[in-house]
Design brief:
Chain B: Residues 21-441 form the DUF112 domain. The complex is a heterodimer. Chain A is mainly α. Chain A is 78% helix and 0% strand. Chain A starts with a helix and ends with a helix. The chains are: A mainly alpha, B mainly alpha. Chains A and B meet through helix 1, helix 2, helix 3, helix 4 and helix 5 of A and helix 8, strand 2, helix 9, helix 18 and helix 19 of B.
Amino acid sequence: MLRINFWSGLAVVAFSVTLLIWIIPTFGGGGFSFGLPPQLIATIGAWIMLLSSGCLVILSSVSLVRSKEPLLSGVNFSEIWHQVWPFLYVLLFIILAIYLPLTWIAPLLIGGLLFILGEQRWHIYLICTLTPTAGLYILTVYLMRIGVV
Amino acid sequence: MPEFSVFYSAFATALSWESITVILGGVLLGYIVGVIPGLNRAVAIAIAIPLTFYMSPYAAISFLIGLSKGTAAGSAVSAILLNTPGESSSAATCLDGYPMARDGRPRTALKIGLLASVIGDLLATLLLIAVAIPFASVALKFGPYELAAILIFALVFIAGMAGGSFLKGMAAGGLGIVLGTVGMDPETGAMRLTFGYMELMEGVPILPLVIGTLALSEMFVQLDEYRRNKGQSAINLTDNQNDDLKWSEFKTTLPTIFKGTAIGAFVGALPGLGPSVGSFMSYGAAKRSAKNPDTFGKGDPRGIAASESADNAVIPASYIPLFGLGIPGSVSAALLVGAFMIHGITVGPLMLREQPEMLFSLFSGMIVASLLMLAIGWYGLRIFAKITNIPSHMVIPIVIFLCLAGIQVQGYGTFGLLVVFGFSILGFFLKKFDYSFVTFLVAFIVTPMLELNLRQSIILSGSDVAILLDRPIAAFFVVLTVILLVRFAWTGIQQRKKSLPNAD
């Protein structure tokens, strides 16, 4: 946990510094105001992030030194891959959804994941892919008929 | 105080067929979600919000409240039959529920859990109605100074009490504040942190944010956990004649249920603590006060009663700060604020003045939801026991699909899908690295309100801090916030010292 605190705190420090010196001054907006400039609240938020994560980094690094734990442990690529692939999988279908309607790609999205997770029964594929897809299709048609979509 | 006709009309609305159907749907869906391990209340509400888009505001909020209550009661089923709580708040129920089910009394355990849930929920709902209205009447007299001070106090309180590290809670809150300012500045009209995207003009859209950070990220976490825990099987309900709840046995659990309800209501009314704290506190209190504490953990019905009554009492009680002050004290309350916003309603004390009928209809609907929860749980016991066997590898792909479909149906398009994806990464890291999610979400939701009140305070006072001397309530909360900050920091340092093995 100490190592997680240290590295996650460091990432938050880096992000909040980026917010304070680049993102908020450049994209935070400007203009005349009475008492509360447009960037003020965001700047306060970023300072809270910086101070809290800064304290977290200092305290966890002191604890790491005292407990003589190393700053880095061996990287387990298999573990990282197991956590990353679902994101890539969903991102792939989001990219596909730019070009194709979701009702077309839904069976592939659900069926593909069922396959990866080891499902072998064909009727489960049928139920799990067709029911939600049909539901979305009916809802979309209904919303189109009442003029919402 | 509203007239009697408002109360009458509110109850008539809540007891109409349309209302009962919507609440029934919400409680039923909530029950099913609660029963399935891996799906939790936040995921269910996040996914259900798009479904409520085309409902009337009352129907939408009643549906979501019914859903929220249903998940709390349903989570006991998987805790008892599978030893895996549907919600983390039902973890204490596993301690006695699962041993009791393993000893051949699953039906009795489920019925004790259900009755404790319903009593806890109903009593806490009545408490909410009794407390929120006077609370809101007082809050209506508050000006911008008081509201700004209370909001800052609430954020610090939630960061400290939401579990985990206070520093991480504050960092998450800071990020919520930054994201809460995105969009057009109401005073200058300047675009803030929109990066040229017109879609961000009105702020970060709440629906993609909650679906991404709560639902989609949770599915990624579940996928990781599925790899580690495959192949659990639930205890089945049998037709064993000896396995049924008798009045004499239930009577022994009643004092525990009332005590659990009181603890749950107290914990729920404090922002940030959540139902897990309530259920474990109640379980601990029941065990300590028992004459034979050794039976706890071995299938004692009082253990189930203590945990479930407190767990369910937390939900209505957590709406006290929401309806009384407009401050969401839990993730589900924060999600409700989002649903209110989508339907153009500002939740908080102003509802008492501007929409009293709506407020009382919701309260009446909550009582109806409690009673429906009893009926659904009692008669659906066998079906829900079967649902426990649905493996998570079938649920996860469908929920991922529902996350994306919910965004598309709302017309957010590709931008919305990418926002959902971005927030799912953020949510994943918040969960993995134990940064307080509730602080992040509450900070994001209350920031526009905080900014408005802060701006009014600065303009009215001419930036003179001495104005606080004339506003004792605001000054009190400012002082309390400073004391809390010092207290949380001190506690954090003490805990850190204790956790170090080599520390002197």
